[in-house]
Amino acid sequence: MNWNDIDFFPVMGEKLSMENTVKLDFSPSNSDLENLDLSNTAAFDEYVSQQIKNSGSKYGIGGYLEHRAIYRRSTVFATTEADFRNIHLGVDLWTDAGAPVFSPMDGKIHSFQDNAGFGNYGATIILEHELDEKKLYSLYGHLFLSDLDGIEIGQEIKSGELLAHVGPFPENGDWPPHLHFQLMWDMMGNVGDFPGVCSKRDVEKFQLICPDPNLILRSEVL
């Protein structure tokens, strides 16, 4: 399959270019994070907003297979030390709450739910698509809770259709506003939810299941 042969609609409604998007680093190599109280969502949000503003951008982007230092803020990701889930499986698009989110291709609603709790996804929608005779699933996390109202499993969604909006904290899982966008070839039995991070020992397994979201986003920044 040649991804470049497919005409995907921009998930944020516009191209994510060098002019409107900056890459954000949330790995341990970012020394700013050592002095930031990540458990304070307002402070975390101010940091993210300033990074985007200082670059003259509208969006911050990044995260696919990034070793994240920010997950220490929540016990959602904590297991044993060897299995601590800190490898990010999607791409995050940081921007203002209320920003519209569009379906990049035709599909239908596979499932949705409010994954409530500090550090979780909050409102989440998962779409099911047919791509070159294979099923591909796309996940949209940290949405407005109201985006779950009035939608139904199996509901058809057209390419370019308004799907949801980037949610505010605390209802979005208590994160600075952003869209978690992730692709999966296999839902692994999950409904309304799917791991957005994995442990280092499981990277190879999940990399096969979760292709690079930039195959659809096509951002020049990544």
UniProtKB/TrEMBL annotation:
CDD domains, per database record: M23_peptidase
Coiled-coil residues: none
Superkingdom assignment: Bacteria
GO molecular function, one term: metalloendopeptidase activity
SUPFAM superfamilies: Duplicated hybrid motif (SSF51261)
Family annotation (Gene3D superfamilies): Glucose Permease (Domain IIA) (2.70.70.10)
InterPro entries on file: Cell_wall_metabolism_enzyme (IPR050570), Dup_hybrid_motif (IPR011055), M23ase_b-sheet_dom (IPR016047)
Domain M23ase beta-sheet core stretches: 87-185
PANTHER family assigned: MUREIN HYDROLASE ACTIVATOR ENVC (PTHR21666:SF270), PEPTIDASE-RELATED (PTHR21666)
Descriptive protein name: Peptidase M23-like protein
Organism: Algoriphagus yeomjeoni
